[in-house]
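User: hey, got a sec? need Phosphotransferase folded
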Amino acid sequence: MEQINLSELCQRYRARVIHITPLEDCYLLETNRGPKELHIWPRADVMRWSFFWRESMARQGFRQLERFIRTRDAKPYVMMGQRGITLTDHQRHIEAVTPTVELARQCGEIVAMMHAAQRESRQFHAADYWERAQGKAASEVKRAEDFLGTLRFRGRPSARRYEAVSWLFPPLLERMRRCASLLQSARIDHADLFVTHGRISRDNWVMVRDKLFLHGFFKPKLSVAQRDVAGYLRELYLVHEDLAQIDAFLDGYEEIRPLSQSEYTLLVAFMGFPLEVWRELQAVFRLNGEPEEERLARLEQAVHQQQAVDQLIGHIAERAEGMRSESKA
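Assistant: Yep! Here you go:
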């Protein structure tokens, strides 16, 4: 972990430090005001943005999240050189979330509140992140096409592996091209494009004092909101395979922030891109000493996951179609 002068820093706060424990992503401080977490932000602009949406959510009435503790001179963070530093309360008594349909609905409402708060910020240009998402999809398609084109020149071992997995390449390339095309051609209202974390996950939810608590986001990788939602729904379904939880999340989300038809198209495009299959397919041909059986087993698992995602995509598409029919009626 990065070295900083903790003694100098802690003097900025109204707390006396008793003990310091370095953790993987922060410092745990035992103080006379209870346990605190000290986080170092590589990007000060992301830290300021994070402060903005956290306080905005608190003003909306949602306080079950980590807020930045203010210094003696009432500042929410400390700048040391180019680095930003924040202090938050450490939650000792957290419990794992037990997934239910009602809890999924609550998660949807909270994420929509968070997105509404992040949408208020104009610190980052959403168009830049949207273009990056489009460019990344297109570049992965090109990489896959080039990779397939070079396999015939890799000798007999690669030829044997290719024979074992060759049936995967046509549908893989077709899906990648289709998803990239959807992202390129989507007619999204620029008012619906705004910057969020890019990837919320189940790890961001815990229970604190029997209440749902939004946790983490100290080192986010920014992207657009639709990618955030798509990634979370994909993860949620792969873990539980419960479409009722998917609908509940979206119902809760749309109570706060309704999704347009174009946004549903983006959800499908982001969900459907077969990154896991593509990565494991490359790994099959990588010479790293790993037993071939293990690589093929992981590839098979990735294919099964993609098949499950296909069921989710079909459900999302039906939901979008149903909403469009209702709007026309």
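Quick note: The two ends are 58 Å apart (CA to CA). Let me know if you need anything else on Phosphotransferase.
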